[in-house]
Known about the structure:
The complex is a heterodimer of chains A (111) and B (116).
Chain A: E1 10-14, E2 19-24, E3 32-38, E4 45-51, E5 56-58, E6 62-67, E7 72-77, E8 86-94, E9 98-101, E10 105-110
Parallel strand pairs in A: 1-10
Antiparallel strand pairs in A: 2-7, 3-4, 3-8, 5-6, 6-7, 8-9, 8-10
Chain B: E1 4-7, E2 10-13, E3 19-25, E4 32-38, E5 45-51, E6 57-58, E7 67-73, E8 76-81, E9 90-98, E10 104-107, E11 111-115
Parallel strand pairs in B: 2-11
Antiparallel strand pairs in B: 1-3, 3-8, 4-5, 4-9, 5-6, 7-8, 9-10, 9-11
Amino acid sequence: GESVGLHLPTLSVQEGDNSIINCAYSNSASDYFIWYKQESGKGPQFIIDIRSNMDKRQGQRVTVLLNKTVKHLSLQIAATQPGDSAVYFCAEIQTGNQFYFGTGTSLTVIP
Amino acid sequence: GAVVSQHPSRVICKSGTSVKIECRSLDFQATTMFWYRQFPKQSLMLMATSNEGSKATYEQGVEKDKFLINHASLTLSTLTVTSAHPEDSSFYICSAISDSPNTEAFFGQGTRLTVV
């Protein structure tokens, strides 16, 4: 996997609103994608995944959308709660276990 | 799901000393583990790729003699920060790749290193 130490873009949402976090990936050959959540001072945790043969997958309060035409991935969080405040980043996985992580987005939920 | 255990979670050491951080895959074998460094409000920065039974592959700009990586078994990789200095203070995170049932990266809890 590769990543670069960059300052994170930020997103602020009101509690109860829906959040949309976006990720652009680089390789059209990537066939598996994962969203991770990283709370302050902790390691990243798996949220939801999607394979390239799907364009939408739903979990509990989260939905991932995949647009292979424009190589774009999004994470939608419904009814955002204060506990959702964290850094979210996507990973694209290519054949051969090549992991590439996105920069990440810092989500702040305003009570 | 699979678990990756990283130890210690916090360490404070004096300048000039060395610190070892362990990364263990508890219920799966990982031929590949990654070590990251993270500064506040920044993304993960890959330091090196650790391969079981062979030398680690370091990213450009990462000193291999400063950050020693050993991947002696399929469940353990260690990162040793040698002759630590205050500028080495950071959050270090490991991840391990599991191939079953799907290819997925599992992360350790992270280690907060403070060099005084």
